[in-house]
Each structure stands twice: as structure tokens, then as C-alpha cells.
């Protein structure tokens, strides 16, 4: 089961009035360093600061007036929370967001600023699911899962679709992988809209459940993930895993030092703010996990939501 | 004495192969906050990370082969140093850069990475000028002053020229003021290429020599400037001061807190990296030093060179 080409085209049309067609940037210094051309799709400039606005907007605007009259709901400590709250406010409905108590101040402020209704819970998956169930039974809201939802996957696919339309003859596209919504969508768009584009995912070694699931062919959940890339700590979903098995060419893993080095390179050389998860594909290039020499590589920079009071840059990395 | 319209047009053509035509960005949140439309000309994305590449490139490529055969020279602890080194390397000549011993690691690394030849000196204006004199007498290099030079002013003017060509009906343009090269060029381009655009400069209150010179009509040097905006600590020049007196509508001053708040707003909302000097015009809007409600305002973001290991963001500003 996967979103067809028509679903992705429809998603792109549906969300166009509400999202940014983000720019694709290049950096001559970075190209020189790696001997290839890298095209960065800047979803850090997206509404609510991440690609998540694409899927959330597609889901919220695909629902009928009847279906959606009691609002939407999700549990999230990350970018999906803000994206869903913003999409709901654009549709004029309520967004109930279950957030663990240890969510970052920045993420909570973002949800509040978009008018989301926050319910706090203990920071365990069980507490999050239980609290969400209670919120839904009380409000009648529709659950919008952050990635294991075909409408979300079709929405996330529109980022790669735009890049493929804008940049000719890409040899490969890279995306980070957490729950797999962005990666699934990216792989589908590469197939639907590209010509022989290889799709390579990058994942922190400290949260390598997708890598292990992919190489073993068996779903392996994320247990005790340890990575600065806070968007990539989740497990794959029952919908995203088979799409990835079928449509992704490879998954590579990177070190925490590599992620910070890549993030610093993007900040210092491109003068743009990306969050650690965004830097994971470039980290794979830095760490020679794949060779992009002489190739045209597209990288999806997934988001730019960081806490400026808590940055990972230490003296002389 | 000032660069005529033809000089600015020639400068734009001369430097086009070597610099970026930088994007103009907007931010719906910031527009909503201030009730007007603000257009940010992103010179933080410029070659060598600042508008300084425009003037330096114009000066270096305007000199004849004979004039320039022994290279160029300047003293600078800031963005002019890197910009001149890069421009010289593009022309295939040597750049001798006198840098005070207390220059930041980042700025020294930038000059070195562009192949500049660094001579260190004590961190006083007298030592800088004396050392530069020695370097020039030894090498025969041509001095390229960071702002008090008509070729530099014409080069810096091209940033506002591009913005005026791209954004219709600007009501005002804002730029920060340090030595006045950017401000002079901006004011001239507003006059040459715009229609009734007001030009407003912003300056840190802790380095308000341009403000005091402008309001008194008498040149007042910068003595013991105290500001985080390291690009704005210098005095006006004998060429820039009269251009500013004649062509700038107003100069306003801002607090250090305002600069950091504006910088944070740009980083958090626009996801781009700007240095403190770039944030000074927006700080003036935040601090109600002028009212841009209902207006179309252009702001030149002067540069993006910051030390990521030494950022001014503290908990809950």
C-alpha cells in the first residue's frame, strides 16, 4: 500500500496555497570539498520550520468538513506538533497536541504560537499513546499520525518532487530517516518524477533501527536511541517500512561527531540554520559512507528548529 | 566628490562574474509583528560572507594590470580583509592584509583560506597604519581602503541597486553605518535607481559617531566604541561623510539589547545566520525608532560572519 503518483500530484496542488516552495541552494566551497555538485532543498525555510508542514497540511486539508469538525490530534515532541497546529489554524479547526513533559521550551512555544491546545504527559511512549487516546475520546478529534499515514507520506513526497522539477539530472537524492515519512515520500517521488535517481538514506549510528531493519529485512524498533538528531529517534512504521524496503537503494549510518561537523559546515559556509537531523546526509558524505564525486546529489534539509541557547558547537571541533 | 550613476552601473557589470546576486527574503511573521512589508537583501550569503566583496572586487578589477602587478594591501580585522583576499585571488594577484593581534580566529582563518598574506601588528590604529605603510613600501602593493575609496563605494552601491530593481515601490531603505561605505553606496543607489525612497541608517548607541556627526554636521571620530556589532566600530571617512550628509534622510541609534533581540528574531524566524551588524536596522524597528507600518522597507543584511563558539544568545532574552 503506497500513495500513487496521482496522490503526490494532488497533494502538491492541495498544499500549494499554504506552504513555501522552498529554494534549492548550492555552495561552491562544499562542492569543491567533495568534488561533486550538491543541491540543498531548504525545508528549514518551510512554514513552521520543517518539511512536516507538507504532510500535516495535506492531511488536514484532505479531510472533509464533517470528518474534521471536531479537530485533529496527535502526540509529538517535535516538528509535527507545530506543523499540525499551524495547518489546523489555517483550516480554522482545533489541534490537540499531546506533548511529553520534557519537550523543549522552543517546541512548546511554537505549538502555542500557532494556537495548538497542549496536553502534557509523562515522557514515555505508553503515556503519550494513552493520553492521546483520552484526548480523542473526549474531543472526537481525528488522529493525524506524524508519519505512518498515506496522506502524510504523499505530502512529504512533494519536497523531492519540487527539487526534481527544479534540478535536472540528479544522480542521487539523500534524506535523513527517523519514522520514515520523509524518506518514503522522497523515494516515491524519485521513482515517479525522476529518471534513474538513486535514493540513499542517512541515519545516526546511535539510532540505527532503520539501517538494521533495512539490512535484515525485518522490522526492528528503535530502543533507547542516543543522538543529537532529535527528529530521528523514532521507529519506522507499518506503512513506511515496506515502502522503504521496496524503493530505497541504501541506508548508511553516521557518527555524532560527523553530524555536528556537517551542521557546522552548513551554518558556517551556507549561513543558514539547520537542525541536527538535517545535517545527517551531509555527515554521510563527510564520513565517506558514499562517494558523490562527479555526481549531482540532492539533499533534503529537513528543518531548522534549534534552541539557540543550547548549540553543540565547541571550541575547535 | 561621489561616484556617479554610470560608475555604479559599471561596477555592477564589472563584479557580476565574481559575486552572487543575493536573494531578497521576506518573513510573514516579522511583517505581521510590525505591520509593514520588510524585504531583506541577504548579503550574508555574499561571497566571503558580506557585502564587502562587492567593493573589494570592484576596486581590484578596476585597476590596470600595471597598477596591480605588485598586489593590493589593506589593514582590517573584519570582513574587508577576507573580501579583498578573495577578490585578489580571483584576479591572480597577492593581497597583503595587516591584521591586529586580537583579530578573531574566524577572520584570520578566512583570510588564510583565500590565500591572503597576513602581517600581524599591535591592536591600535597607529600600529595598523604604520605596519601597512611598511608593507606597502616593501611590496609596492596598492592600498585598498575598506570604505574611504570611490571604487569601494560604487561597489557597495550595487547591493541596493539590485534590491531596487527586484522590489517595486520601496518606501524606504535601511542600512547599518560604520565607516559609511555601504550607507553611502545605498543612498546613492536609492537616488539613482529609485523613486522617492527614504534612506535611514541605523547605528549602535555605543558607537554613535555617525549619528553625532550627522546631527551636528561636523565630523566626530569614533572613540572607544562599545558594541557587539563589530563591523560598525569605525569612524566615517572624508569621502563617505559628505555623501551621507547630502543623501541620507536620517540616522537612528539602537541599544545592544535591541541588536541581540533583532539578531535572534532573524535567526529564529528566518533561519538564516546574520552577524550583529546586520541586525542593527531591524533593531531600530523593534525599538520604535521609526514607524514602518503600512510601508515597504528594504533592509540590507550586511553579512553573516559570526563565531559559532561565541554567540550572544542567553536564556530568556
From TrEMBL, chains A, B:
Q: Give the UniProt record's GO annotations in the biological process aspect.
A: D-serine biosynthetic process
Query: CDD domains from the xrefs?
Result: Thr-dehyd
Q: Does the keyword Lyase apply?
A: yes
Keywords carried by this UniProt record: Lyase, Pyridoxal phosphate
* Cofactor requirement: pyridoxal 5'-phosphate
UniProt cross-references to InterPro entries, sorted A to Z: TrpB-like_PALP, TrpB-like_PALP_sf
**UniProt superkingdom:** Bacteria
Gene Ontology MF term list: ATP binding; L-serine ammonia-lyase activity; magnesium ion binding; pyridoxal phosphate binding; serine racemase activity; threonine racemase activity
Q: Which Pfam families match?
A: PALP
Q: Which residues form the Tryptophan synthase beta chain-like PALP domain?
A: 16-303
Q: Which PANTHER family match?
A: SERINE / THREONINE RACEMASE FAMILY MEMBER (PTHR43050), SERINE RACEMASE (PTHR43050:SF1)
Q: Which family does it belong to?
A: Belongs to the serine/threonine dehydratase family.
**By what name is this protein known?**
Threonine dehydratase
Originating organism: Lentimicrobium saccharophilum
Amino acid at each position: 500500500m503506497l500513495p500513487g503518483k496521482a496522490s503526490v500530484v494532488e497533494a502538491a496542488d492541495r498544499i500549494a496555497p499554504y506552504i513555501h516552495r522552498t529554494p534549492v541552494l548550492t555552495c561552491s566551497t562544499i562542492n569543491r570539498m567533495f568534488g561533486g555538485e550538491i543541491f540543498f532543498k531548504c525545508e528549514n525555510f518551510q512554514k513552521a520550520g520543517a518539511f512536516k508542514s507538507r504532510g500535516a497540511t495535506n492531511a488536514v486539508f484532505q479531510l472533509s468538513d464533517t470528518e474534521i469538525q471536531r479537530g485533529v490530534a496527535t502526540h509529538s515532541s517535535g516538528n509535527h506538533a507545530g506543523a499540525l497546529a499551524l495547518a489546523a489554524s489555517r483550516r480554522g479547526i482545533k489541534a490537540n497536541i499531546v506533548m511529553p513533559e520534557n519537550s523543549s521550551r522552543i517546541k512548546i512555544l511554537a505549538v502555542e504560537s500557532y494556537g495548538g491546545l497542549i496536553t502534557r504527559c509523562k515522557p514515555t511512549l505508553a503515556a503519550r499513546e494513552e493520553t492521546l487516546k483520552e484526548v480523542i475520546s473526549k474531543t472526537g478529534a481525528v488522529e493525524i499520525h506524524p508519519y505512518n499515514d498515506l496522506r502524510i507520506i504523499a505530502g512529504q513526497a512533494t519536497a523531492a518532487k519540487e527539487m526534481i522539477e527544479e534540478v535536472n539530472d540528479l544522480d542521487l537524492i539523500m534524506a535523513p530517516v527517523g519514522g520514515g515519512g520523509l524518506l518514503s515520500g522522497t523515494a516515491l517521488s524519485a521513482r515517479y518524477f525522476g529518471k534513474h535517481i538513486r535514493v540513499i538514506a542517512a541515519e545516526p549510528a546511535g539510532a540505527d533501527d532503520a539501517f538494521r531493519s533495512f539490512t535484515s529485512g525485518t522490522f526492528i524498533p528503535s530502543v533507547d536511541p542516543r543522538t543529537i538528531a532529535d527528529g530521528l529517534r523514532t521507529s519506522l512504521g507499518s506503512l513506511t517500512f515496506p515502502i522503504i524496503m521496496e524503493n530505497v537503494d541504501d541506508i548508511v549510518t553516521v557518527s555524532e561527531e560527523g553530524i555536528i561537523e556537517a551542521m557546522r559546515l552548513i551554518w558556517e559556509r551556507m549561513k543558514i540554520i539547520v537542525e541536527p537531523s538535517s545535517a545527517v546526509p551531509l555527515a554521510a558524505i563527510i564520513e565517506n559512507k558514499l562517494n558523490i564525486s562527479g555526481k549531482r546529489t540532492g539533499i533534503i534539509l529537513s528543518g531548522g528548529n534549534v534552541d539557540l541557547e543550547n548549540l553543540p558547537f565547541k571550541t575547535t571541533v
